[in-house]
Design a protein that fits this description.
The complex is a heterodimer. By secondary structure, chain A is α+β, with helices and mostly antiparallel strands. Chain A has five helices and five strands. Chain A has a five-stranded mixed sheet with strand order 2-1-5-3-4, sandwiched between helices. In chain B, strands 4-5-10-6-7 form a five-stranded antiparallel sheet. The chains are: A alpha+beta, B alpha+beta. Chains A and B meet through β4 and α3 of A and α2 and α5 of B.
């Protein structure tokens, strides 16, 4: 039997009905059509499905959608302000921090959460921040360079 | 594919225990679900009823026990423990262990109680809690009971929890004076489970002799285990490198590891042999400063 799920995603309130077995990544992608969040390994290993839930980075493939009832969620679709990309998004572009792009949404959400919690991470802390995210095009160094550039203040927040 | 189930989200411990009592073995408790959902997806666990205790806020806390120890609610997330200012002095090892448990995302949602109830012998918290001589508190509609952390896991993925019972609290006593505790694990990828994990807690007495010692091994048997024979090698003695090496040998003999895709039995025994002296040395160095 379906149950009611109230969510706020990227500032937008949603009220949907889901089966209890629905995972959060499925609610986002299949019910809300927010397909920027990727479903990779589906077993909490790859981090492609990383989103922010009440300000924390979590893996949306490993949370029941109903557990997010009442939560505020930010997905990759919520990072840009209008057409203005977030500092991390801009830095990822400039530093070529992706190749195929499948890990990118998760990487951006993990690093956004990292900088929300710790605006001045060390290189080691940046590495720990993306420890739960796998990039199979081996783009870790360029990702670390992009985050470092944001930490150094080379990218401004959109007004 | 996860099988359909009925979902309950009790808000209080009482409600949760009432539901558990009603549905008994037909029900499975989920909290952070960081381990359980993987098993459900693989079809290894397919409950009719899922009792989702994640939002029982009364079970999420870190308090002092009034005697220098800590009381940690079973629903406290790994990340909360890792970041807590109460994980200092003798408890710093708990925060250190948490920083090595899976990834930040998993630690943000997963709970220490859930990790223990999953009963995976490779889990990180159990060896550390055994070394720290922690007690686990469980509740059911019939009342409460407690068990030493070392008696909680009975077999692979099997715990001492009876039908209708929930793990509610972890009590970590104040370490005695001049005690140091340390934990390490060997794994290939940083965020993986331990191939072998070792925790040691050592209390130094007069002349820096080993007054008391607790060594706990993870992923070295069907359950997290105390290496009591290795402890006996060191207890009451002035610790030397030769004695530490002997304790490592002894621990590797009393361990009972399996071979799996991570490592062979022999390799795990070798890890125990190497890590027991190494982490004991670290515990001693900490004990000297404590």
């Amino acid at each position: 039997m379906k149950k009611e799920l109230k969510l706020k995603v990227n500032g937008q309130p949603y009220d949907i009905f889901v089966k209890p077995k629905t995972l959060l990544v499925e609610a986002l992608r299949d019910h809300l059509a927010l397909t920027g969040t990727k479903r990779g390994c589906n077993s909490s290993s790859c981090g492609a499905c990383t989103i922010m839930l009440n300000g924390m980075a979590v893996k949306s493939c490993s949370i029941l959608a109903l557990q997010a009832n009442g939560a505020e969620i930010v997905t990759i679709e919520g990072l840009a302000k209008g057409t203005e990309l977030s500092p991390l998004q801009k830095a990822f572009l400039d530093h070529g921090s992706y190749q195929c792009g499948f890990c990118t949404a998760g990487m951006l959400m993990a690093t956004t959460a990292l900088l929300t919690e710790n605006p001045k991470p060390t290189k080691q802390e940046i590495k720990e921040g993306i420890d739960g995210n796998i990039c199979r095009c081996t783009g870790y160094n360029s990702i670390i360079r992009a985050v470092t550039a944001v930490v150094k203040g080379e990218y401004k927040e959109a007004k | 594919m996860i099988k359909d189930f009925e979902h309950f989200a009790p808000k209080t411990l009482k409600e949760a225990l009432t539901l558990l009592d009603k549905y008994q073995d037909e029900a499975k408790v989920i909290c952070g679900g960081q381990s359980l959902l993987i098993l459900m997806r693989q079809g290894l666990v397919a409950p009719e009823y899922v009792i989702d205790i994640k939002s029982i806020s009364e079970l999420s806390y870190i308090k002092t026990d009034g005697k220098g120890g800590l009381k940690i609610g079973a629903l406290t997330t790994h990340r909360t423990i890792e970041k807590s200012s109460q994980m200092r002095d003798g408890f710093a090892v708990l925060a250190e262990m948490e920083t090595r448990l899976a990834s930040i995302q998993t630690r943000n949602w997963g709970t220490i109680g859930g990790n223990l109830c999953h009963g995976d012998p490779a889990g990180d918290p159990a060896p550390v809690l055994i070394a720290l001589n922690a007690t686990l508190k469980m509740a059911s509609l019939k009342g409460e009971r407690s068990l030493p952390a070392e008696d909680f896991t009975l077999d692979y993925f099997e715990t001492a929890l009876k039908t209708g019972e929930l793990l509610t609290e972890i009590i970590v006593p104040a370490p005695p004076a001049h005690t140091g505790t340390a934990y390490t694990k060997f794994n290939i990828i940083e965020s993986d489970l331990a191939t072998v994990g070792v925790a040691a807690s050592i209390t130094l007495g007069a002349g820096d002799s080993c007054q008391d010692i607790r060594i706990a091994l993870g992923a070295a048997a069907a359950t997290p285990m105390r290496a009591k024979k290795a402890e006996a090698v060191l207890k009451g003695k002035k610790i030397t490198d030769a004695l530490l090496a002997q304790a490592g040998e002894t621990a590797s003999t009393e361990a009972d590891p399996i071979s799996d895709m991570q490592a062979s039995e022999e390799y795990r025994r070798e890890l125990v042999k190497v890590l027991v002296p190494r982490i004991s040395k670290e515990a001693i160095a900490r004990a000297k400063k404590a």
